[in-house]
Design brief:
- It contains two helices and 16 strands.
- With about 270 residues, it is mainly beta.
- A twelve-stranded antiparallel β-barrel has the order 3-6-7-8-9-10-11-12-13-14-15-16. Strands 1-2 form a two-stranded antiparallel sheet. Strands 4-5 form a two-stranded antiparallel sheet.
- A hairpin with a 4-residue loop joins strand 12 and strand 13.
Length: about 270
C-alpha cells in the first residue's frame, strides 16, 4: 500500500519563527539520486501513520477510505516539525475512476497546533506506470493561515523483485518554492493478513522550506507493518529513522532538520 505524502512544513515555520526568506543554493546531480536509488533498490515505499492520503489510483467503482492514527512526531520535509511533540490525525477520502478527493485533519495534544487539508487528484495509468496531478488547500485554524499547493508524481511498479520506484513533487504558492521526494519501495506478504513494507525516501528542497537550505534535504529508512483481519479493516504501525542532509545551522528553517527516530500507529477502514 503505497502513499503520497501531502504533509507540509513551511507554514509551520511561519507560525513559529516569522523570519525573512533566506536561500542557500546547493548543487544537485542526477548521479547522486541514481546512486541512492541503486543502493536501496531492495527497499519499499509505505506511508507514515499520520500522512493524509494514499497515492491516487484509477478505480473502476466508487471506493472510500477512513483513517485515524497517532504519530510520536510530525515528520514533514525531513523535519521534526513540532519539536518532538506528537500528532493525532484523521482522514476521509473517496475515489472514482481517475478522480480522488479527500479531507485530512491533524491536531497535536502537546501544543496549540492543528492543520486541515482538502485535496483533489487526477490519475492516468499506462501499463506499470501511474501518473497523477493534484491540488491541495491547507488551513491552520489556530493561526488563521492558509496555502494552496499543486503537486504531481509518477510511480513505476514494473521493476524486478517487485520494487516500486516513485517520484513526487509539490509546489507552494505561498512559499513560491517546491519540494521533491524520490522513493524506492518493496512490500512483503507474510500471511494473508500481514504485510511488511520497507521504504527509503530521498528529499530535495528548493525554496519550499523558505528559510532552510536548498538541495539534498534528507534520506530515511522506514519499516511498516499492516495487519488486515478483514478486507475492509486494517491496523498499521511504522518505525522510521531520518538523516539530515546538508543542514545549515545558521538558517532557522534547518533548526528541526536533524537525525531522529519516530514511530506511529493507525487504523484504516476501506469501503
Amino acid at each position: 500500500m503505497s502513499c503520497l505524502c501531502w504533509s507540509r512544513y513551511h507554514l509551520m515555520v511561519t507560525q513559529m519563527h516569522f523570519y525573512p526568506k533566506q536561500i542557500m543554493s546547493e548543487t544537485k546531480t542526477l548521479s547522486l539520486v541514481l546512486f541512492i536509488s541503486g543502493t536501496l533498490i531492495a527497499l519499499g515505499h509505505e506511508p507514515e501513520a499520520q500522512l493524509p492520503f494514499a497515492r491516487p489510483h484509477g478505480l473502476d467503482s466508487l471506493e472510500g477510505h477512513a483513517h485515524f492514527g497517532w504519530d510520536s512526531r510530525y515528520f514533514s520535509e525531513g523535519r521534526d516539525s513540532l519539536g518532538g511533540d506528537s500528532l493525532f490525525a484523521g482522514s476521509y477520502e473517496m475515489g472514482w475512476k481517475q478522480l480522488t478527493g479527500g479531507v485530512w485533519y491533524g491536531h497535536s495534544p502537546d501544543q496549540r497546533y492543528d492543520e486541515m487539508q482538502l485535496s483533489l487528484a487526477l490519475t492516468r495509468n499506462l501499463g506499470d506506470v501511474e501518473f497523477y496531478g493534484s491540488y491541495t488547500h491547507l488551513r491552520f485554524p489556530f493561526d488563521d493561515l492558509h496555502d494552496n499547493e499543486i503537486g504531481s508524481g509518477v510511480a513505476w511498479s514494473g521493476l524486478p523483485l517487485d520494487v516500486e520506484l516513485s517520484a513526487d513533487v509539490y509546489a507552494s504558492m505561498d512559499a513560491e518554492g517546491w519540494f521533491a521526494e524520490i522513493s524506492v519501495a518493496r512490500a512483503f506478504v507474510i500471511t494473508d493478513e500481514i504485510e511488511l513494507n520497507l521504504s527509503a525516501p530521498f528529499g530535495i528542497n528548493q525554496g519550499y522550506v523558505a528559510d532552510g537550505h536548498d538541495g539534498s534535504n534528507h534520506i530515511a529508512l522506514r519499516l511498516g507493518l499492516e495487519f488486515a483481519p478483514t478486507d475492509s479493516f486494517s491496523v498499521i504501525a511504522h518505525g522510521t529513522y531520518s538523516w539530515a542532509l546538508g543542514r545549515n545551522a545558521v538558517l532557522p528553517g534547518d533548526d528541526s532538520l536533524t537525525n531522529f527516530f519516530h514511530w506511529g500507529v493507525g487504523l484504516q477502514w476501506s469501503f
